[in-house]
Write a structure and sequence with these properties.
The protein is mainly α and about 200 residues long. It has a single domain (about 25-195), classed as Four Helix Bundle (Hemerythrin (Met), subunit A) (Up-down Bundle), CATH 1.20.120. It has helices at about 5-10, 10-20, 30-50, 55-70, 75-90, 95-110, 115-135, 140-165, 175-195. It is built from 9 helices and no strands. The relative contact order is 0.16.
Length: about 200
């Protein structure tokens, strides 16, 4: 598996090829992390262009940068977590069924943690984007709205992956948190859109 540096240091066309390849990872979680990081970068840019008219612009840009730096490494982390699920699924079929199922279930449950973190970070990006749309430079409002939409899409995709990974584990509070993050991101998109009216 790639290190964070090798994963994020790829040329864009190489990354696109690795996503398109007939391999299970990187997949949806990795892409959600990258989309969230890109949305955070867009928020930071729009906030920086808003410093003259908005006192909080610099602080928002710094927050967006911090999220970008936390979120981008979640792309290879998600791919690694899914690889661990695949290893568990390759356990011999003749292994004691309870042991095999518990191992697979445990790997899936652990694999839900990364997309949950992506959903949380992306939801915060959407909220920051809404703030920029409401308070920032009107010439950058379109970028702020786009960032909110991208962040919400990343949030929803990651939240769905939490649901999928926890499908075999019964009741789990992470499902509720993932749904809350997705709902929060969607509300932020609505706020961002309303700011342009």
């Amino acid at each position: 598996m790639n290190t964070v540096e090798s994963f994020l240091g790829q040329r864009l066309d190489d990354l696109l090829e690795s996503v398109a390849a007939e391999t299970p990872a990187p997949g949806g979680g990795s892409i959600a992390a990258l989309v969230a990081a890109l949305a955070a970068a867009l928020v930071a840019m729009a906030a920086r262009f808003s410093r003259k008219q908005w006192a909080d612009a610099a602080a928002v840009a710094e927050r967006a940068d911090a999220i970008r730096h936390r979120t981008a490494p979640l792309a290879p982390a998600d791919a690694q977590a899914y690889e661990e699920v695949l290893v568990a699924m390759r356990l011999p079929k003749d292994l004691e069924p309870d042991v095999r199922n518990a191992t697979i279930g445990g790997a899936l449950a652990r694999a839900a943690d990364v997309p949950l973190e992506i959903a949380r970070e992306a939801s915060e990006v959407a909220a920051l984007a809404a703030l920029v749309a409401e308070n920032g430079n009107p010439n950058l409002r379109g970028d702020a709205v786009a960032a909110a939409m991208f962040a919400a899409a990343a949030t929803k995709a990651a939240a769905r992956l939490v649901e999928v990974n926890l499908g075999t584990t019964g009741a789990d509070g992470r499902r509720v948190k993932a749904r809350e993050h997705a709902a929060g991101a969607e509300a932020s998109v609505e706020r961002a859109l309303a700011a342009g009216l």
